[in-house]
Write a structure and sequence with these properties.
Elements (H helix, E strand, L loop, with lengths): L1 H26 L29 E12 L24 H10 L5 E2 L7 E2 L1 H9 L3 E6 L18 E6 L10 E11 L4 E16 L5 E5 L3 E2 L3 H8 L15 H7 L5 E5 L13 H21 L4
Antiparallel strand pairs: 1-6, 1-10, 2-3, 4-5, 6-7, 7-8, 7-9
């Protein structure tokens, strides 16, 4: 009996040593920037939205919203601007979408109706602007200025310059969404249909002017699978940040309505300014949320 007990203890000791060694070996595979391997935020797939039948939609309304990234609550969309620095796995939303469009991973459209799709090269030209030519002083390979021997004046040459997209200038998101009531459960629901952003773009006079980017179809599973694997900063817990897909589904952002579906297809700024536009935006907001409660009788 004593020999059996000693043999059992020896086996357990060997197993514990082997297990401890495997744990030590596992640490060698970790990211040197952390003490454990993070796999929960990679390779995820977005859960598809449930199918909706036309006969089940008893009311719907389209609205357009602006998300101002200068607002403190929305700044997780904007930072980090520079992806080359220590970002702790986070990425700027605009940078994420632009790179995905450039690589052909997600589609981009000319308008929020999403009828004409851009090819990746055309989308980037739309974003950066056309190349331009300009006369500049000629220089040699060492960068020394070249002079005309006959006139004694600086020699001028015509060069072509390409404009580039300034990602740090994108500080406002535009979303198009559809609110509807599903009679299957008598609930009001919303789907975000399209997203674009404001940025500064150089015009023909090399002046920076506001411009609107291409439109991203937010209901497309290619876009949602991209967003579900990109985390934004969570000020309450660094261990598990919200993905951008979670943020849009949970509506974890501050925004204001700038347009609703109407007879003349106008924006609020087309007929209202200042405080009047702000009040009308809130009136539309209240109208949307009152519709669901008005359906019920007690």
């Amino acid at each position: 009996m004593k020999k059996v007990l000693i043999s059992l203890l020896a086996t357990m000791a060997c197993f514990s040593a082997a297990n401890a060694q495997s744990i030590i070996d596992a640490d060698d595979q970790r990211n040197p920037n952390d003490f454990y391997v993070k796999v929960s935020s990679t390779g995820k797939k977005a859960m598809p939205y449930p199918a909706v039948r036309e006969s089940d939609v008893v009311w719907e309304m389209v609205v357009w919203r602006d998300i101002d990234l200068n607002e403190k609550f929305n700044q997780f969309f904007y930072y980090p601007v520079d992806d080359e620095k220590d970002t702790q796995g986070r990425v700027n939303l605009v940078n994420l979408l632009v790179k995905a469009v450039e690589n052909g991973e997600i589609p981009a459209f000319e308008t929020d109706d999403m009828v004409k799709e851009f090819d990746p090269a055309e989308a980037m030209r739309q974003l950066a602007g056309e190349a331009y030519t300009k006369e500049v002083e000629a220089t040699d390979e060492q960068g020394n200025q070249i002079w005309d021997d006959e006139t004694g004046e600086a020699l001028m040459v015509t060069k072509t310059f390409t404009r580039s997209f300034k990602k740090e200038s994108a500080k406002k998101l535009h979303i198009k969404e559809k609110w509807y009531i599903d009679k299957q459960d008598s609930r009001q629901k919303v789907r975000i249909l399209a997203l674009s952003f404001d940025y500064l773009k150089e015009n023909v006079n090399n002046e920076e002017v506001p411009a609107i980017s291409f439109y991203i179809p937010m209901d497309d599973m290619r876009v949602r699978n991209l967003l579900v694997n990109a985390n934004a900063y969570d000020e309450n817990n660094d261990v598990r940040g919200r993905s951008y897909d979670d943020i849009f589904i949970q509506r974890y952002f501050d925004s204001y309505i700038v347009r609703e579906s109407n007879t003349q297809n106008r924006k609020l700024e087309d007929y209202l300014t200042g405080e009047d536009a702000i009040l009308q935006s809130q009136i539309i907001e209240d109208k949307i949320f009152d519709i669901e409660s008005d359906m019920w009788e007690y």
